[in-house]
């Protein structure tokens, strides 16, 4: 290869290397001279390593205020633990003794050690619930967790329901009412506040109280705690029904349009939001040429087929008025 060819090959390599460097260091280069930036953790600044330009200042040090020089010292000084949660009666601050009868090395405990650990678990459980209020709270929060899991409610709803129950317990609203009733009412209110409501029939199915006690306790809790709960919107039920029936996004959009048209026509007032949502899904499926029966929709929404027939005709009439 000639000298000219060697120089050309070397220049092309340098050009490609420079382009790769520029592409990978767009963020970490100095805006003035293009040199590499470095972080000065002592002064909280980001400066250029060549010209000394201060690019960022007064940066927040998000690390610990202590120093550690080995892993043992780091574990000893660290104060980080599990986050507190309102879904546990002690907010997760107490210690649990594991149920596995094994030591730190994974070896099985002897019979004498197992009996000792069982006694320790018993005493630990007694110390965690020292009075009737904590026992009440433990039972109620366990009930909320059980019902929320059965209804498929997210964690933020469970957290809100736990806070509502704690407020009711602190304000002495439980005398004369069952723990299960107040826990169910708190979960029902939390689901409506979070925009993922469940119907009374669905909640009653997983609860240990009947619908009459649930509605009575719910009204009492809402009134005494001054909770702001908006009326249930039929549109909030539509995504769940669409998912359970395995329908398309087009059907969901059409169902929302039907509900909006009915709202403008004043058809929604005084009618069950669950029935309206189910009827809107059924009507939208028919308009989109999707095969779904009234029986399938009624099973998903847990309402009668008669309600679907009556409501979907009203929705179609309101939709025709809106498009006329």
TrEMBL record:
Any one biological process term the GO annotation gives: transcription preinitiation complex assembly
Presence of keyword DNA repair: no
One CC-aspect GO term: transcription preinitiation complex
SUPFAM superfamilies found in the cross-reference section: Cyclin-like, Zinc beta-ribbon
Compositional bias ranges of the Polar residues kind: 83-94
Record domain TFIIB-type: where: 25-56
Binding site for Zn(2+): 30, 33, 48, 51
UniProt biased composition (Basic and acidic residues): 9-23
Pfam families from the UniProt entry: TFIIB (PF00382), Zn_Ribbon_TF (PF08271)
NCBIfam families to which the protein is assigned, alphabetical: PRK00423.1
Family: Belongs to the TFIIB family.
Record's function text: Stabilizes TBP binding to an archaeal box-A promoter. Also responsible for recruiting RNA polymerase II to the pre-initiation complex (DNA-TBP-TFIIB).
Protein name: Transcription initiation factor IIB
Gene giving rise to this polypeptide: tfb
